[in-house]
Write a structure and sequence with these properties.
This protein is of the alpha+beta class. The protein has four domains: 87 residues, Rossmann fold (3-Layer(aba) Sandwich); 56 residues, 2-Layer Sandwich (Dna Ligase, domain 1); 128 residues, ATP-grasp fold, B domain (D-amino Acid Aminotransferase, Chain A, domain 1, 2-Layer Sandwich), CATH 3.30.470; 93 residues, Alpha-Beta Complex (Glycinamide Ribonucleotide Synthetase, Chain A, domain 4), CATH 3.90.600. Helices cover 29% and strands 28% of the residues. A hairpin with a 3-residue loop joins strand 9 and strand 10. The radius of gyration is 21 Å and the shape is globular. The N and C termini lie far apart (44 Å). Bound molecules: adenosine monophosphate and glycine. Adenosine monophosphate binds next to strand 6, strand 7, strand 8, strand 15 and strand 16.
């Protein structure tokens, strides 16, 4: 038996801890720093790589890293140097997410479908480029900006203002030293997540996130307001195309460039006329996509993490999924993704049916009470025999939970229904 250390504190990490704790091969699952819902919390921050390594060493842990920041900071390389078992990509491989410019150039030289783009560090030249185009653009900061460094523009004025915000005002700091201006593609987004061992990549179940804060995809982008799996938007034929033209090609091209990619590879794709192009790569599981995906997984996730590290995924059976839908409705603090209240007591957990899981994100437990402690607070995740029944089950449970400034979208999963 092995202990597991899950690094992170979001809903994704609660779902990973919950799933890994069901493995007969896993003894105790620790979470660092965890949240009000995770058990065996260890108060070490995700940026304290030495502290995490010491803990993993002393407690015989197999480590699973949830968020991008410690991965981009090189946690996997550090653990490997100390001969500690850790699941996730090396620092070099995280460039796919940590530098959007690196990722765009990588896609271009390897012929992986993505929107047309140019790179700028000069505002005037960027403006001139926008003026020369006959389509709308998206302006992106190069570096990690907690999902906020992307501005989707409806006209040239908005593009000029976005250039000013990122490149001149430096709203996202050094992450905005260089920008990408790319063609805006109007289509339907889906999350395609695969697990790789550096040689092959096996798909996880399909899913779709809901990035905007308000119903009908209005308002600013967030970390994700809800997700469901599977999504009818990615049918078998499209999944095959994405797997071959994007995922397999990416893993192979990384290998050819001397960078073995181990871990979750997440392609955020835009689908237009039956073809997918990559909007972004993430080098980790999605949050909240992880919650419905793990709910549907029959296989032992720990076995697949071991096979990823050891380069043995090709000898593993395909992952087995429940033939049901799962929906995760994120309950957030009103005001998110801007400012919001914290420390509000949350009630209603006792009335949640056993088959529904409330994964915690921005919560903390004080004297037995659960208090809000972040923008995305809970992910109410339910199964159902159809997408419609999973939606109904998730919302019925979500209604039982209350606190003063609770907010959620009311239309999670509806886009999928329109495709059935
Ligand atoms: P990213 O972090 O690059 O995925 O961008 C965040 C969000 O901006 C995406 O989820 C899309 O909703 C939107 N977006 C990014 N790139 C494009 C694009 N080329 N065309 C249209 N929307 C985009
Ligand atoms: N749900 C989007 C992400 O994890 O980046």
């Amino acid at each position: 038996m092995v202990n597991v250390l899950v690094v992170g504190s979001g809903g994704r990490e609660h779902a990973l801890s919950w799933k890994l704790s069901q493995s007969p091969k896993v003894d105790t699952v620790f979470t660092a720093p965890g949240n009000g819902g995770t058990e065996n919390n260890v108060s070490i921050g995700v940026d304290d790589l030495d502290g995490l390594a010491d803990f993993a060493q002393k407690n015989n842990c197999f480590t699973v890293v949830g968020p991008e920041d410690p991965l981009a900071a090189g946690i996997v390389d550090k653990f490997n140097q100390k001969n500690l078992r850790v699941f996730g990509p090396s620092q070099k491989a995280t460039q796919l997410e940590s530098s959007k410019i690196w990722a765009k150039n990588f896609m271009k030289r390897n012929d992986i479908p993505t929107a047309e783009f140019e790179i700028f560090d000069d505002a005037q030249k960027a403006q001139d480029y926008v003026k020369s185009l006959d389509y709308n653009v998206v302006v992106k900061a190069d570096g990690l900006a907690a999902g906020k460094g992307v501005i989707v523009c409806n006209n040239n004025e908005e593009a000029f203002s976005a250039i000013d915000t990122i490149l001149v005002k430096k709203t996202f700091g050094d992450a905005g030293n260089r920008i990408i201006i790319e063609e805006r593609i109007d289509g339907i987004e889906a999350s395609y997540i695969a697990l790789s061992d550096g040689d092959v990549a096996i798909p996880m179940a399909s899913s779709q996130d809901h990035k905007r804060i308000f119903d009908n995809d209005k308002g600013p982008n967030t970390g994700g307001m809800g997700a469901y799996s599977p999504t009818p938007i990615v049918d078998d034929a499209l999944a095959k195309k994405i797997q071959e033209k994007i995922i397999d090609k990416t893993i192979q091209a990384m290998k050819n460039e001397g960078i073995s990619f181990k871990g979750f590879l997440y392609a955020g794709v835009m689908i237009r006329d039956g073809e997918a192009s990559v909007l972004e790569y993430n080098v980790r599981m999605g949050d909240p996509e992880c919650q419905p995906i793990t709910m549907r997984m029959n296989s032992d996730l720990y076995d697949y993490f071991v096979a990823s590290i050891d380069g043995k995924l090709s000898s593993m059976p395909p992952i087995s999924w429940k033939n049901q839908s799962a929906v995760c409705v994120v309950l957030a603090s009103e005001g998110y993704p801007e400012s919001y209240a914290k420390d509000e007591e949350i009630t209603g957990f006792d009335s949640i049916p056993n088959e529904v899981h409330v994964f915690h994100a921005g919560t903390k437990k004080i004297d037995g009470k659960i208090l809000s402690n972040g923008g995305r607070v809970l992910g109410v995740t339910a199964l159902g025999d159809s997408l419609e029944s999973a939606i109904n089950n998730a919302y019925a449970a979500a209604e039982k939970i209350s606190w003063s400034h609770k907010y959620c979208r009311k239309d999670i999963g509806k886009k999928g229904l329109s495709y059935l």
